[in-house]
């Protein structure tokens, strides 16, 4: 689709519903947890522990094989109680860098905060992550990269800024965030940029996409953290590609739309609960 604005023309493809069935496949019989990928979520300080719990929960509930969380020690009991499937390491543990090297997907930022410890964890993570791994950079990690002008050169990066985080990172004021301006700024960053809003845009090195689904029922804290976990879980299971990233973005909003038919607000935990059922229907080509 070509979108015409007053002073710009940019080719934007709408993500199509059929992509879901192409990406989400029935699980092979001959498989084990390792088949479905290892995810590490790094986030959740003392104030924002819920963000790490929601991200990790979304990764587990969409099917990632093994999920670990590096978080503030104070979040240990809550995370264990809420998500016993996840493994936990304190985010200031010296073993964290060794753990990073063992996973397929690292997702950093949900609820990480922007203090000195958070900045140090982020810069060590950026130095440690290997070329073969996928790296999702969200929330506080985006704010820190903008504030400290950190350089990210990792090609397999997925950025998930909301509009204010995108303003901080790109320097483009929210009101000036046109598709052309966003696309131009995104090409200066490695990997894929997902600019989240009521109609989220994706900019990959080769194409631009728009998410045609979503609902104001999603406008509640933690909904972006949930997307991070879904992206991590999708990439862990199905690999990193334009299709897989687009499918995660689409599914996040499509599930919310389904739930919004009978619910005034869709909470992240409601969406997360719905994930196994949605994934099953998608794998059976019933969505
Ligand atoms: N339960 C938890 O633990 C939770 C923890 N969280 C974690 O908290 C950390 C901080 O993240 P954050 O997003 O809450 O704060 P920040 O980066 O300052 O941005 C807010 C500013 O941006 C503005 N704004 C403009 N456009 C916007 C848009 N489209 N979408 C959103 N905002 C938009 C907005 O404008 P306003 O709302 O005032 O109109 C406001 O001025 C981060 O690590 C995150 O993961 C959260 O996930 C919540 C649940
Ligand atoms: N009005 C809306 N319509 C559609 N989607 C929305 C709306 N409001 C928020 N969202 C979606 O919810 C998510 C919010 O992300 P974010 O602001 O990072 O949340 P948080 O950091 O609180 O988890 C994004 O995926 C965004 O597209
Ligand atoms: Mg967010």
TrEMBL record:
GO terms for molecular function: ADP-dependent NAD(P)H-hydrate dehydratase activity; ATP binding; kinase activity; NAD(P)HX epimerase activity. PROSITE patterns: YJEF_C_1, YJEF_C_3. Catalyzes the dehydration of the S-form of NAD(P)HX at the expense of ADP, which is converted to AMP. Together with NAD(P)HX epimerase, which catalyzes the epimerization of the S- and R-forms, the enzyme allows the repair of both epimers of NAD(P)HX, a damaged form of NAD(P)H that is a result of enzymatic or heat-dependent hydration. Belongs to the NnrD/CARKD family. Homotetramer. PANTHER family: ATP-DEPENDENT (S)-NAD(P)H-HYDRATE DEHYDRATASE, ATP-DEPENDENT (S)-NAD(P)H-HYDRATE DEHYDRATASE FAMILY MEMBER. NCBIfam families: yjeF_cterm. This is ADP-dependent (S)-NAD(P)H-hydrate dehydratase. It comes from Lacticaseibacillus camelliae DSM 22697 = JCM 13995.
């Amino acid at each position: 689709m070509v979108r015409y604005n007053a002073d710009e023309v940019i080719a934007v493809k709408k993500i199509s519903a059929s992509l879901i069935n192409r990406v989400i496949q029935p699980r092979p019989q001959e498989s084990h947890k390792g088949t479905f990928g290892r995810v590490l979520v790094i986030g959740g300080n003392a104030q924002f522990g819920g963000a790490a719990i929601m991200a990790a929960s979304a990764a587990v509930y969409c099917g990632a094989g093994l999920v670990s969380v590096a978080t503030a020690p104070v979040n240990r009991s809550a995370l264990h109680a809420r998500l016993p499937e996840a493994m936990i390491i304190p985010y200031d543990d010296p073993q964290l860098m060794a753990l990073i090297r063992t996973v397929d997907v690292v997702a950093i930022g949900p609820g990480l905060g922007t203090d000195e410890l958070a900045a140090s964890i982020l810069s060590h993570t950026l130095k440690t992550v290997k070329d073969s791994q996928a790296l999702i950079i969200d929330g506080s990690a985006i704010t820190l990269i903008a504030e400290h002008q950190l350089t990210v050169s990792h090609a397999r990066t997925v950025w998930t800024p909301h509009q204010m985080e995108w303003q901080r990172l790109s320097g483009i004021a929210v009101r000036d965030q046109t598709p052309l301006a966003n696309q131009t700024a995104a090409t200066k960053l490695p990997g894929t940029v997902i600019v989240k809003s009521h109609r989220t845009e994706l900019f990959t090195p080769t194409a631009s996409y728009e998410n045609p689904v979503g609902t104001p029922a999603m406008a509640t804290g933690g909904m972006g953290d949930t997307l991070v976990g879904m992206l991590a879980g999708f990439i862990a299971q199905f690999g990193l590609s334009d299709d897989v990233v687009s499918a995660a973005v689409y599914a996040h909003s499509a599930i919310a739309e389904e739930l919004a038919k009978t619910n005034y607000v869709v909470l992240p935990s409601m969406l997360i609960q719905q994930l196994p059922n949605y994934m099953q229907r998608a794998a059976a080509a019933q969505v």
